[in-house]
Amino acid sequence: MRCVKFLLFAFNFVFWLAGLAVITFGLWLRFGGVLGDLTSAEKSPESLYMGLYVLVGAGALMMTVGFFGCCGAAQESQCLLGVFFACLLVIFAAEVTAGVFAFIGKKVAVQEVQKIYHEAYDDYVDTGKSNKTLIQLHAALQCCGKESEVPVKSTCPEGIQLPKNCLNEIQNVINSNLRLVGIVGIGIAGITIFGMIFSMVLCCAIRNTRDVL
Predict the structure, then answer these.
(1) Quick one: CA dihedral 149, 152, 154, 159, positive or negative?
(2) Greatest CA span in the chain, whole angstroms?
């Protein structure tokens, strides 16, 4: 029983640190880096950052759960361990959802952002008026135009020498970042399984000890 308590304490400490890391990672993807620029752009699709909010929420819940797990192990409270198990189950479901959404939703997110780019591109070519969305996407992705940058050269980022195809860059950036979200989500879901096992074992040990007494 002492061994299980120690393992549960160690797990909760690691779990708390993992929650902090997940929050940091999710917020960085949402507000920093290339994906952060994309999600902050005008007309940015909700599907692009929905998984990120789930990830951040799960990270916050993970840090809270670490506290319940430590208290439950220290006080040998079946009630707190039950709350701990239930929270882990919620986190497991949330992380699996975020992971699966990130892997499956990549194609939809790419199509939506590319559609926004097509509309902004065509609007600029047709009217010649400055387009904020087009400028934001070019700056975020460090690209310009589709096959050629000539039709929209005035909206290209300053100092860019070899403009890349923006449609390809949209696909590359979203695929790589959402793949990371999927890996993190599935990885955390795997870790929660161990926590649920430890809490169940400790809860059974407490019950058996009390029955003996």
Answers:
(1) negative
(2) 84
C-alpha 171/C-alpha 107 separation (Å) is 8
Summarize pLDDT for 169-211 with one digit per residue, the tens.
Answer: 888 888 888 888 788 878 888 888 887 787 777 777 767 765 5
> What are the C-alpha distances in Å from 178 to residues 2, 14, 74, 164?
41, 24, 38, 21
Q: Which residues of the chain have pLDDT under 50?
A: none
**Residues sharing a CB contact under 8 Å with residue 102, sequence separation 6 or more, in sequence order:** 51, 178, 179, 181, 182, 185
Rounded Cα gap, residues 198 and 202, in angstroms:
6
Give the pLDDT score at 27. 82
pLDDT at 40: 60
Number of H helices, E strands in the chain: 7, 0
Rg (CA), the chain: 23
Cβ 35 vs Cβ 174: under 8 Å: yes
Provide the 8-state DSSP code for 163.
P
Q: 146-177 burial string, b = 16+ CB within 10 Å, else e?
A: eeebeebeebbeeeeeebebbbebbbbbbeeb
Q: Which long-range contacts (CB under 8 A, 24 or more apart) does 86-93 make?
A: 87/61, 88/192, 88/195, 88/196, 88/199, 89/192, 89/196, 90/61, 91/58, 91/61, 91/62, 91/65, 91/188, 91/189, 91/192, 92/189, 92/192, 92/193, 92/196
